[in-house]
Specification:
By secondary structure, the chain is of the alpha/beta class. It contains 20 helices and 16 strands. The termini are far apart.
Length: 589
């Protein structure tokens, strides 16, 4: 027994004397080392595993004293940056407050100078913008409102004020007569009259028309800017600031070349519809430039509907957008600001000028009193009125009779119109149009199918009979291609004189003031052509075929196709009321 105890003791002593194995760190802490997708350690150049970056959660680095000092210094710097940024923001706020105070003081000093100029005490501009008056000290504002200060011009609220404040580059202020357009044209260029480099040019068509504007400027400019001098021979205003204003006329398009090589910061044309073409106005746009960063260059024009330039002015300013809505064209921002007599209280108040305008013939009355741009001299359909003959698009009931008409063109636009008959009163409603050029017959057929995709049945129609003509070829005609594509079309009645008379007949208002023809507002090309297509100078019974008439022709084809004005229910009732009488009483038929 004693020997057994001695043996166990010896074995224990031997185990204690054996050397212990030292494990590597990646063996004892493998989670602290990087592994690849297969689970193997990622090795460094020396062949040992690469350790993960950072410290394990809850662990602390045993940093060197220099590193600790560096980090402490960085924290102090960051804290100092935060304090400095906060103070910098406070400084910016104070700067902004100081800037506004300085600007307010500058405006008040400027207003005081203008008040002195208005009282004849200083040689300075007496023009003061209305919105600036609201921001002045109450004592200065009260002095401006007092009776001691004579106001030479104050814009009327509404269109006149909107015109003078418009930021767009190219603006038309037009419409009815008596809207205060001429005075606005004279006042608008004064916005930069205190700048030495400011050069403005005001134009009319003839010299006689220009004299009226010059006379008005003689009343206004010496009051607006005391010391301003007018040179009658050169038709030039010179202002004490060094700014200059010129008056000129463009009796012929070629007269515009007298301004070649010159530059202006503001160009205006009073009654621009007197210009027969757009060329002079486009050329003058190239003369608009300045090197003064404080000056914005503008083009301004006024007009009444009518005149030789009615069509191009309407196309440039009226048609692209709704009134008072800015739009962009050719890189320029434009806007049309409409004016009516009621916008000028000075003329509208006593009612005498309004009575005179109401006494004019229908066309002149609509143009000069109502400012109607859809009517002008020589128009083929003067009775057309957007307020009567157009409506907003609406869903056409499925049971209404449909009809369509096609005027094909490839280089010229092709036009397809879709119409529906209101069974209650037989009104023809043109509710859809396709207007495009460069479409082959197969492409046109596909577009028509696409636009008819929501129709419940095929729509019959008419097409220009010329589309079935075989002129020097035996291949398929345009009409055949449309027919093979599934469009049910027959040859249209192309009688031009009779067709125009029928269009007049359908546009005539019936009892109750409703016409037989109504066009939805989405048919923009049809509305454009009907409202502006002129009469033929050599045959007043027809329209001028040298202008766009494709939508008009399609409408004429549709009306001449004698669209069925009787509704389905009325036809069924008529059929039921008819008594069948056989031709042979013995056979029954």
């Amino acid at each position: 027994m004693k020997d057994l105890e001695n043996n166990l003791l010896n074995e224990t002593n031997q185990d204690q004397t054996q050397p212990q194995v030292n494990l590597k760190d990646w063996e004892s802490n493998p989670e602290s080392y990087l592994r690849d997708a297969l689970g193997n350690f990622i090795l460094k150049k020396d062949g040992t595993p690469r350790k993960r970056a950072g410290n394990k959660a809850g662990g602390k680095y045993n940093l060197h004293s220099k590193e600790k000092a560096r980090r402490a210094q960085r924290r102090k710097i960051n804290e100092a940056k935060i304090v400095l940024n906060k103070k910098a923001k406070e400084v910016e706020v104070e700067k902004a407050k100081l800037y506004h105070k300085r600007e307010k003081l500058k405006n008040e000093i400027d207003a005081a100078k203008r008040i002195d100029a208005a009282q004849g005490k200083a040689n300075y501009s007496a023009v003061l913008e209305a919105e600036k008056v609201l921001n002045l000290h109450y004592s200065i504002a009260d002095q401006i409102q007092s009776e001691d200060i004579s106001v030479a011009f104050k814009p009327h609220p509404g269109p006149q004020t909107a015109f003078l404040a418009a930021p767009e580059k190219d603006v038309l202020y037009g419409g009815a007569a008596g809207g205060g357009k001429s005075y606005a044209m004279l006042v608008d260029p004064l916005r930069y009259i205190h700048e030495k480099e400011h050069r403005f040019l005001i134009l009319r068509r003839t010299l006689n028309e220009l004299e009226e504007l010059i006379d008005k400027s003689r009343e206004l400019y010496p009051i607006a800017y005391p010391g301003a001098k007018f040179n009658q021979q050169k038709r030039t205003w010179e202002f004490p600031s060094g700014a200059k204003g010129y008056f000129g006329y463009l009796e012929k398009d070629s007269d515009v070349y007298q301004y070649q090589g010159r530059s202006f910061t503001w160009i205006g044309f009073d009654e621009i519809t007197h210009l027969p073409t757009e060329f002079p106005w486009n050329y003058l746009a190239s003369r608009l430039r300045t090197t003064n960063p404080n000056i914005e260059c503008y083009m301004r024009c006024t007009a009444n509907p009518g005149g030789v330039g009615h069509a191009w002015v309407k196309k440039r300013y009226i048609e692209p957008a709704d009134p008072n809505t800015p739009f962009e064209s050719g890189g320029l921002t434009r806007k049309f600001i409409p004016a009516k007599l009621s916008d000028n209280p000075s003329l509208f108040k006593d009612g005498q000028y309004e009575k005179m305008l109401r006494s004019l013939p229908e066309i002149e009355r609509q143009r000069l009193l109502e400012g109607n741009w859809d009517i002008h001299d020589g128009v083929a359909f003067p009775e057309f009125n957007k307020n009567i003959h157009t409506v907003l698009p609406f869903e056409i009931p499925a049971y209404w009779e449909r009809v369509k008409s096609v005027d094909y063109g490839y280089s010229a636009p092709a036009c397809v119109l879709w119409g529906a008959i209101d069974p209650d009163d037989g009104t023809l409603i043109v509710y859809r149009e396709l207007y495009a050029k460069g479409l082959e017959p197969s492409q046109l057929a596909a577009r028509m199918h696409e636009m008819e995709s929501n129709e419940i049945r095929s729509i019959y129609g008419v097409i220009d009979g010329q589309c079935f003509a075989r002129t020097g070829h035996t291949g398929p005609t345009q009409g055949e291609v449309l027919l093979r594509a599934g469009h049910k079309l027959r040859r249209a009645d192309k009688n031009r004189i009779g067709g125009k008379i029928q269009v007049h007949e359908w546009m005539r208002t019936r009892e109750g003031g409703k016409p037989s023809l109504i066009i939805t507002a989405n048919c923009v090309n049809l509305i454009r052509e009907i409202s502006g297509i002129p009469l033929d100078k050599h045959n007043p019974e027809d329209v001028d075929t040298n202008v766009d008439d494709h939508a008009y022709d399609a409408l004429r084809y549709m009306i001449m196709s004698r669209p069925r004005r009787e509704g389905i229910q009325a036809r069924m009732a008529r059929h039921k009321s008819e008594i069948y009488i056989p031709a042979d009483p013995y056979t029954g038929y």
